[in-house]
Design a protein that fits this description.
- Its main location: membrane.
- Pfam families: Sugar_tr (PF00083).
- It contains 23 helices and two strands.
- By secondary structure, the chain is mostly helical.
- It has a single domain, classed as Growth Hormone, Chain: A (Up-down Bundle), CATH 1.20.1250.
- Helix 6 runs antiparallel to helix 7 and helix 15 packs parallel to helix 21.
- The radius of gyration is 23 Å and the shape is globular.
- The two termini are 36 Å apart.
């Protein structure tokens, strides 16, 4: 089913034939399921770590702290345990290392091979976690989940950017983030249900069900084609042209294929992509692939996504109320990501970045003020239902802002701005920086909550100010620009143009 002759126009005025086809939509939906792996884990870990039977079995010191009356004067610290945070954060350390191996697999064997391996590793990790009898098995399972996340996050955004026509590349790429948010919501619903299982083994169900998105990812990857870029990269010219014609729904792809071929030939002349990305002409891409994932994590979103039930429980919500509040914020996350899919190719990336930053800043400050006034310095005050509802509303306002700005765009923009010769290396840098700071935030959050208390929200709000200024000054608009012609964006930028004249 062809796209009815929709022309894809470059920033320089060049038109490509063809458009959005049913084949492209189907393949991108299948590929985007890789986001379910990341999302399910983001949502499941916080709920599991708030379950009493899980804590009693693996983290008895935390369990005792919660039930020790003498600790009640310091409610902010009742979950503070480096071993407990290691359960969450170890996955992201493994993902950081795995993404560099994934970069090689993605380049040499193709994007779908990387997805297949990631799905299989995640599947094994889910099984080990579901049957874990000690902390060692739990951490080993988490490390294998991390390998899966590293491979999926390295390959899926690149696959989506390369398959999609320029006019809808943003919307299709955000399918990955949509899958992440759906995974988070499903995990929150699973936790809300499994915590009620009698016998205290509901946490096993929560962890083992991670096998479901893993199977979907692994099986789905075998059904996917590879992208024309990847096929050309491995030397199959005719096959690549036929694939381009298939995904565009027309045989008139000579102009786009010629651009793609020239970009591939230029990429083949690059013997050392990791050394090449350090050249001055790639400085804007390198800076963005480092700072965008860095800032994405310093929004503080994973304070909510990892530890929503723990956070809500800490500030006075009951057990069921804390899990249900996580479900509500997860639902807001899904709806707001759908807003981004609609807006990203219509209004552009910059406006979403800037608006989202302002909304996150305001809501974070208000959450910090509310907790300071209503919950107190030591967490001894009791929240009224009205106060709890206001805090939940403000957190949902913050989650919505992230979900239509830095959430999807943190994956979209780095995946679309890099020429083919540095794309795999740049995506590995993007994922590794993301995973490094995800690991750091996951590992230190409960300690930061203990010592900084409500000031934690002001801490992250400060970074939101910095990142919004960075976008305003240094991130150009990439809406509707074909991925192989992205160099023109940097040439016309007030700051980056001095690095990019030899494109």
């Amino acid at each position: 089913m062809a796209g009815g002759g929709i022309a894809v126009q470059s920033a320089g005025g060049r038109n490509y034939e063809g458009g959005l086809t049913g084949f492209v939509i189907t393949t991108c939906l299948v590929a985007a399921m890789g986001g379910l792996l990341f999302g399910y884990d983001l949502g499941i870990s916080g709920g599991v770590t708030s379950m009493e039977h899980f804590l009693k079995k693996f983290f008895p010191s935390v369990y005792k702290k919660q039930h020790n009356d003498s600790d009640k004067e310091n409610a902010y610290c009742k979950f503070d345990s480096q071993l407990l945070t290691l359960f969450t954060s170890s996955l992201y350390l493994a993902a950081l290392i795995a993404c560099f191996f994934a970069s090689v697999v993605t380049r040499v064997y193709g994007r779908k091979a990387s997805m297949s391996f990631g799905g299989f590793a995640f599947l094994i990790g889910a099984i080990i976690n579901g049957v874990a009898s000690n902390i060692i098995m739990l951490i080993v399972g988490r490390l294998l989940l991390g390998v899966g996340v590293g491979f999926a996050n390295q390959s899926v955004p690149v696959f989506l950017s390369e398959m999609a026509p320029a006019k809808v590349r943003g919307a299709l790429n955000i399918g990955f983030q949509m899958a992440i948010t759906i995974g988070i919501l499903i995990a929150n619903l699973v936790n809300f249900g499994t915590v009620k299982i009698s016998g205290g083994w509901g946490w096993r169900v929560s962890l083992a069900l991670a096998a479901v998105p893993a199977v979907m990812m692994t099986v789905g990857s075998f059904l996917l084609p590879d992208t024309p870029n990847s096929i050309l990269e491995r030397g199959h010219t005719l096959k690549a042209r036929n694939m381009l014609a298939k995904i565009r729904g027309t045989v008139n792809v000579d102009r786009e294929f010629q651009d793609l071929y020239e970009a591939t030939e230029a990429a083949k002349r690059v013997e050392h992509p990791w050394r090449n990305i350090l050249q001055p002409k790639y400085r804007p891409q390198l800076v963005c692939c480092i700072l965008i994932p860095f800032f994405q994590q310093l929004t503080g979103i994973n304070v909510i996504m990892f530890y929503a039930p723990v956070l809500f429980k800490t500030i006075g919500f009951g057990d069921d109320a804390s899990l249900m509040s996580a479900v509500i914020s997860g639902g807001v996350n899904v709806v707001a990501t759908a807003v981004s899919i609609y807006c990203v190719d219509k209004f552009g990336r910059r406006i979403l970045f800037l608006q989202g930053g302002m909304q996150m800043l305001i809501s974070q400050i208000l959450v910090g003020v509310m907790i300071a006034l209503k919950f107190g310095l030591n967490g001894t005050a009791k929240l009224s239902k009205a106060d709890a509802d206001v805090i939940l509303f403000l957190i949902c306002l913050y989650v919505a802002a992230f979900a239509w700005s830095w959430g999807p765009l943190g994956w979209l923009v780095p995946s679309e701005i890099c020429p083919l010769e540095i794309r795999s290396a740049a995506q590995a840098i993007n994922v590794s920086v993301n995973m490094l700071f995800t690991f750091i935030i996951a590992q230190v959050f409960l300690t930061m909550l203990c010592h900084m208390k409500f000031g934690l929200f002001f801490f992250f709000a400060g970074f939101v100010v910095i990142m919004t200024i960075f976008v305003f000054l240094f991130v150009p608009e990439t809406k509707n620009v074909p991925i192989e012609e992205m160099g023109s964006v940097w040439k016309n930028h007030w700051f980056w143009c001095k690095y990019c004249q030899d494109y």
